[in-house]
Design goal:
By secondary structure, this protein is mainly α. The chain has a two-stranded antiparallel sheet with strand order 1-2. Helix 4 runs parallel beside helix 11 and helix 21 packs antiparallel against helix 22.
């Protein structure tokens, strides 16, 4: 059966009846096929890099407008947290400064010129206070922050040096010391090594390609870097006809910034061969088409990762199927998921390294859909104590291990083949490790998400389903932590309530064991009802926005006015995954509230 034959609900159907969760879920499944690059929120960091690296690219002024409109009152970009705000603020500041360079400045009569100058001034005054080298700061564990930060500081200082003879008074006010200083421990030593290695034709680890822009000019058409072919996007670039060779697209590191850095400046983008690249302009055309298509999703600004095909498919289908929402999944989608796993696991999307998290998500989703695939490939990521996201990972992820537990645990339940004793031993090992990583107050924290609610949901749901009796106390402690954290409007959230975090909380509170303790049954019921009401309101608001903007996507970004929470070079929100989590929570709330009261009887 194809997507068209299944005829899932259209956006109009969903908009007409926002309480029809089955139709809304069907629309998400349709989108997994029709939009293989995935959908995520626009990134300040990545958009800033395109402003600086590719001013020739379609939508340059709209990207400038996006940066200007998203600056906070204190001069920073990103969430209201100095650590998380560091990278987006540096990127936006450098991007805006790049437009004021003496040789390439915007004309004074340009409507954005005055706004850019003011925005740069606000940003530099804040950065000068925070990056004066006088104190150490606690920065979050987000990918490549220790490499990106010194590079952007170096670039900003270069702009200041060039501008100082032309505007000494303004620069003295913006940055009294004259230069910014990178935080302690971010000295750029690794960046220098990467640049030297690339410059001599050496290859870099696959995970570094996602941030290739840190290599600077040496990244341009680097011989050791090969763009990866990717699926045709949902929104083809203009003038692309079916069957045309212009349907081919390629990316470096699933990143517009990395891809633009590899492609080089305007002359290279127009197909001018550079002396060191040795490649024909025709070979670079798919790369430029990728960039042109990437800017279409948000009409100028870009997401931090594209495509994120496998990552999105695994988690969307896992959330929906685990909640029990009826699904019709096209066979070709199942086949593509299985093929993506290969022998070594799947990457989040083409251009990214293979990882245990994405692989576990696909394995769990396939198992839930009645198409189990042996999880043996995950053992490639096993260490003595836990599973790493990829071999040689510096940190440790509880959510990756929770997803590994789900992959092994559900396969044990639905399939009889394979080395079952080893599967059981693996599940027990991961269970013990997760329990040992729980915080005293009952929550978990993770390196891939800013909110402990996400980590707690991943761990509590996995342990409840597959952790056995030894996990009961850990799950109970998580439930108590969630109950204590609800806000007055029924939501949950680190920086204020969000639909995403509320969805995770509701899913924890609708676990069967949440209502079995008579001392908290009533509190759980109230919390679930209030949380579900908040989610329904968020969905309706999103639908109204979609109708007002003539969007065809049905339920849109339910947290469009909130700070993203997922870790990448910049915080981002995987829009479709969050939608799936919200729909799943509403379905669970609808099913389980009555059961909570029945269990008390």
């Amino acid at each position: 059966m194809t997507v068209e034959e299944a005829k899932p609900a259209s956006a109009d159907t969903v908009a007409a009846d926002p309480d029809d969760l089955t139709a809304a879920a069907a629309a998400l499944v349709t989108g997994l096929v029709r939009e293989p690059w995935g959908r995520s929120s626009p990134s300040v960091y990545e958009t800033g890099r395109l402003v600086s690296l590719a001013p020739w690219l379609t939508g340059h002024v709209r990207r400038l407008r996006f940066l200007l409109d998203t600056q906070r009152r204190d001069g920073t970009w990103g969430p209201p947290d100095p650590g998380y705000a560091l990278v987006p603020t540096l990127s936006a500041s450098e991007a805006l400064l790049s437009t004021l360079r003496p040789r390439e400045r915007l004309r004074p009569h340009c409507p954005l010129h005055t706004e850019i100058v003011r925005a740069v001034g606000r940003a530099l005054r804040t950065l000068a206070r925070r990056l004066d080298g006088s104190k150490a700061a606690d920065y979050p564990d987000v990918p490549a922050i220790e490499h990106i930060t010194p590079v952007l500081v170096e670039q900003i200082n270069g702009h200041l040096d060039r501008l100082r003879p032309h505007a000494p008074g303004a620069l003295a006010l913006w940055c009294p010391s004259g230069r910014l200083s990178a935080p302690a421990g971010m000295d750029g030593a690794v960046v220098a090594a990467v640049r030297d290695h690339l410059g001599t034709g050496g290859a870099v680890p696959p995970k570094m390609l996602h941030a290739l822009e840190i290599a600077g000019p040496v990244a341009g058409r680097a011989r050791a870097v090969r763009p990866v072919p990717i699926p045709v996007p949902a929104r083809p670039v203009p003038e692309t006809a079916p069957g045309d060779e212009r349907e081919t697209f390629a990316t470096v590191g699933a990143s517009t910034a990395a891809t633009a850095a590899w492609l080089g400046g305007p002359r290279a983008a127009q197909g001018v061969r550079t002396a060191h690249c040795g490649r024909a302009p025709r070979d670079e055309a798919p790369v430029r088409r990728y960039l042109e298509a990437a800017v279409e999703q948000h009409d100028g600004p870009v997401p931090v990762t594209a495509p994120m095909t496998n990552f999105e498919r695994g988690w969307v289908l896992s959330w929906l199927a685990r909640a029990g929402i009826p699904l019709t999944v096209p066979p070709e989608l199942v086949d593509q998921m299985r093929a993506a796993l290969g022998e070594d696991g799947a990457p989040g999307g083409p251009g990214l390294p293979r990882d245990a998290d994405t692989s576990s998500g696909l394995l769990y989703a396939l198992s839930l859909l009645g198409e189990p695939h042996p999880p043996d490939l995950l053992w490639q990521y096993e260490t003595d104590t836990h599973f790493s996201s990829w071999p040689g990972e510096n940190g440790r992820s509880v959510t990756t291990n929770a997803h590994v537990l789900e992959a092994f645990g559900h396969y044990l339940e639905c399939a009889d083949s394979g080395p079952r004793k080893r599967y059981v031993a693996t599940a027990q090992k991961v269970t013990a490790w997760l329990i040992g990583r729980q915080k005293e107050d009952g929550r978990w924290e993770d390196r891939w998400h800013a909110s402990p609610m996400y980590a707690t949901a991943c761990c509590a749901l996995a342990l409840n389903a597959f952790g056995g009796p030894e996990s009961e106390d850990a799950v109970d402690r998580a439930i108590r932590w969630v109950l204590d954290g609800q806000l007055a409007d029924g939501s949950w959230g680190r920086w204020g309530g969000t639909a995403e975090e509320t969805a995770y909380a509701v899913q924890i509170l609708t676990l069967p064991r949440a209502g079995r303790d008579p001392s908290r049954t009533a509190a759980v019921g109230r919390a679930v009802r209030h949380g579900a009401a908040y989610l329904r309101a968020a969905v309706r608001t999103s639908l109204r926005t979609s109708l007002r903007t003539a969007s065809t996507e049905g339920v849109g970004d339910v947290d469009s006015d909130k700070s993203p929470l997922w870790h990448d070079k910049d915080l981002y929100r995987p829009i479709t995954i969050v939608q799936a989590a919200v729909l799943s929570a509403l379905h669970r709330a609808r099913q389980e509230v009555d059961d909570i009261h029945v269990s008390r009887k």
